[in-house]
Each structure stands twice: as C-alpha cells, then as structure tokens.
Amino acid sequence: MNELTRVRILVIEDSENDARLAMRLLRRAGFEPDYHRVQDLHGVQAALAQGHWDAVISDFSMPGFSGMDALEAFRGAGLDMPFIFVSGTIGEETAVRAIKAGASDYVMKDNMSRLAPVLERELVQAARRAAHRDAEAELRRFEQQLAEAQKMESLGTLAGGIAHDFNNILSAILGNVELARGELPGDHPVVALLGEIQKSGLRARDMVRQILTFSRRESHQLRHVAVQPVIHETYGLLRVTLPAGVDLELDLMDEVLHVNGDGTQLQQVLMNLGTNAWHALPGEVGRIVLGLERVDLDACAARSLSGLSAGPHAHLWVSDTGIGMDEATRKRIFEPFFTTKPTGKGTGLGLSVVHGIVVAHQGSIAVESTPHQGSTFHLYLPIVPPASLTETMGPGEADSIQGHCEHILYLDDDETVSLVVVGLLERAGYRCSSFLDSAAAVAAIAAAPEDVDLLVTDYNMPGRTGLDVAREVARIRPSLPIVISSGLITDELRESAEQAGVCAVLEKEDTFLKLPQLVRRVLAGRR
C-alpha cells in the first residue's frame, strides 16, 4: 500500500495488549487505524449503534462472552462491513460455521501477518458492494423517473386527444352565446347573464389551451396582464372551495400592476399555493392571505432572488398559519415528484409546476417557513407598463364586418358546431352550405367549382383530415381559398397547410370569435 489508509475499527477483545498488537501490525502494513475496544455484549451493541466503523475485528473466545455472540449482534445491526475473527483457539470446523454465519474471514493469532491483507481485501469488497448498492438505487430512481415521464407522456397524448372534443363543446357553447346576444337588445337583462356564461367559457377555453400546451410541450405566449383581477378571481374560486374554518383574506395595494404573463397560468400558481396552504392548516382551521404590493429591487436584492434584474416588480404572496416546514423540506419542495403528503394524496408535481411557470414568466419564487409557525410563498414578477389600446375585435363587433352573400362551404363532423358556425356566418352576411361528411363536401365542390368562394374545414375528422380535403379540393379548383380549423395546431400542421396552399389555420376554440373576421380578410385578399 503506497499511502496510509485511515480506518475506524471496532475491536472486540478482552486483552488490551492483543488489541494493540493487531493495530501495530496494521500500521506497519500501511493502515492508520483509529480503534475502540469493547469486551462485552452491551459494549458491542452500544458501539455498533453509535459509531461509524469501517471494520470489526473480534476475538473468538472471551470470558463470559463469545465471538459468535458479537457476530450475532453485528448481523442484527444490519451493517455491511468486514467482520474478521482473530483467534488463537478457533478450529477449522468452527471457522467454517462462523463464515457461514456472516463473518468475512478469520486470522489465527499465530499468523497475524495475514490480518492486513485480509482487511485490505475485505474493505475493497465492501466498497464494491456499497457502489453496487448505490448503482442499484440510482437505477431504481431512474426507472421511477422513466415511469413518471412515460406516465406524463401518456397524459399528454390523452390531453391532446380529448382537446378536440372539448373544443367542439366550447365552440358550441360560446357560439350559441354569441348568437343569443345578437338576438337581444343591448339593455336586455339576459345579456348580462350571457356575458357571465361567455366569461366562464373563455376561461374554459384558456384551460383547454393549457392542456394543449402540456400535450405538445410548448410555451404560452405571454401578454400584458393586470395582476389584481387574477388575484380577485382566484380569491373567489378558493373561497367557495375552502372549509368554513379557514379565514381567507386579501391584502392588495390600490395601484393596478401589470406583468408580462399568462393570466390562466398565474391563476394556476395561486390556486396551487392556496390549496397547499389549506392542506397545511392543522384541522383545516387557520388563516390564508393572498397579497400584492409593488417593490423596487436593487441589484443586491435582485441577485438574491435567482438573478432577477433590478427594478420594479409585482410582489405576490400566499401565507398561511399552518404546520410550516423544516429547512431540509424547504430545500426540496420544488423538486419534481417530491411530496410530504401520504401516498395517494399528492404527486409531488404541483410546486415544481409552480416553479416552472414563475421562471417562464421571468420571475422568481422564494419561501419562508418555520415549523409550527406557517409558511409564506413570495412571487416576484417584473412590472411592465399597461398595454396601449389597440384596434381589437371584440365578440360583439363581428356584425360591423358584413359579407355580401359570398358562398362559404363549411365542413365539420360535429353537427352542433356546424349549426353554430353556420348561424354566425349567415348573421355576418354570408351564404353557407354545411357538410358533416368530407366526401360529400368534396363532391359538392367538384359539381360546381366556381359556385364556392371559400372552404372552411375542420382538421380532425374520420376518414380524411382537413389537409386531405384541402389537397383534393386544390386539384379540383386550385384558386379556391381554404381555411383549416383545428383544436391542436402544431408547427408540422402549419407547414403542411402552407404547402397545401391553405390560407390560414385557425384555433378551433377561436372559431366563434374570429372566423367571420378571418373570412372577410381572406375574401378581401382574393379580390
């Protein structure tokens, strides 16, 4: 051995001289032993429980106590390290029995030169076993992560699949709301109720977009968002969710703060933190506060918050009077799949998603928590100036852009959506023909190619996709403008649509809101 090897050795020996002799031989062989000697069962048990040993060297025969008793105590402690008998009386038969019982090896006292090589060999073997255990634990961890990743991928695939049906339902709801609003005078009391239905439908539409974002691993487009309305809406949702024993409070500044973000995702963050705060309240009794203030971070404060830039920030917080967290837990709460909840009560994904959303908003999140004194989650988002007013088209403004009886052919396998869209287009001044079957729609165009001014087709249909229909129609009448509506728009779909000569690809959930304007722009561009 070229370098001294430090080892901590538990020596089970009734003779101090024999123990010193063994340590002297180990020093000569290149070890630097730090040893502790015990000579009875109680001493063995206490030493094994309290110390961190690299090896155990035990005599076999001691007054009132045997090496086999020591070995049994060692095995009971569940330790994996060399256990070497050093004895002058052990026979071959007894030695074999000791090895079978779990001893690593034995050395006769009249041949102590074997002790150092035996110890060195057994330490190497123990290190290999430890490395193998670590590798197996790491493998199990990776297998668990892979299983979780596959589960998340399956959920994403499912999300993308059901989004089509969700979009059809939402399009029918929102479209019928828009048709109903158009049939009533502006001061009719039902108009306000329809407005509430529309707001809920639009919120559901945003949730569907989140599902689609999850399924295709794309980031949201951020825009100017007023923070106070997001907090107020979250407060309303939490208030009806929390039990009566939870006191939910707001602590908001009067100034309206704007950030560059996604309102639905910010609400998801606050809902998650609020729900976690509720679960942290012992006996579901306590206080939760949603707060907002403006803070101006200097360079030092910004660096301490995960490298934010200095300047004005919206400081949101969610505090509770719950059980709190210790330092070790607080350091791990944003790790994926880490949870302190019992099995079946949580996935450990909530706070990792919260952290990901905040980071995607160029923000930072910090946590203060003390056991039995509650927790406060602090969110910092850069403040931006309010968005300037732009000429945007609202739900009720489609009437101002009227068609001139142009013939629109609409294809969708969902009858309810088809009826609603046709109603919207006809109210906007267009003449419409609707089809539920792609073959019938293509045949109608083939029978009178010049009679159709625009084709609008759903993408996801049985038998043919909207792209298949577009390619067939392009062979019949290359100049006919085509719009595809889809609940799941990917870069691949946009590229394929462009190659097929499609004029525009429209989000399915935006059909009721944007289709009349889009039709007008497409037709105007073809003149």
UniProtKB/TrEMBL annotation:
One of its GO terms (molecular function) is phosphorelay sensor kinase activity. It is an enzyme of class 2 (transferase). The keyword Amino-acid biosynthesis does not apply. Keywords: Kinase, Phosphoprotein, Transferase. The keyword Kinase applies. Coiled coil: none annotated. Its EC number is 2.7.13.3. This is histidine kinase.
